[in-house]
Design a protein that fits this description.
The protein is an all-alpha fold and 102 residues long. The chain contains 5 helices and no strands. Keywords: Membrane, Transmembrane, Transmembrane helix, Transport.
Amino acid sequence: MGGVGIVANSSPSYPGKLTSYVVLTMMVGAAGGLIFGYDLGISGGVTSMAPFLEKFFPEVYKKEMEDTGTNQYCKFDSQILQLFTSSLYLAALGKLPSWLRR
């Protein structure tokens, strides 16, 4: 039976330094991930709510009510609903400053 071994100091240490630019880049990346995750959770939650679907996407609501299966994968098979969700992200992208969109 084979094993895995870890050899200490097998590679030279990285000569880079933790500069303010690196810290700022990490913070912006983390904030972007947090905002994207929050936005995705909110829009996904709203588009799966029965009152929202009943009012704005009645054909999807009807399909959901008829589906008695337990499989949640691809439950909402509607290109119009996908277009709506995608438009939220495109609208947010349009609000970014021009220097950030380059």
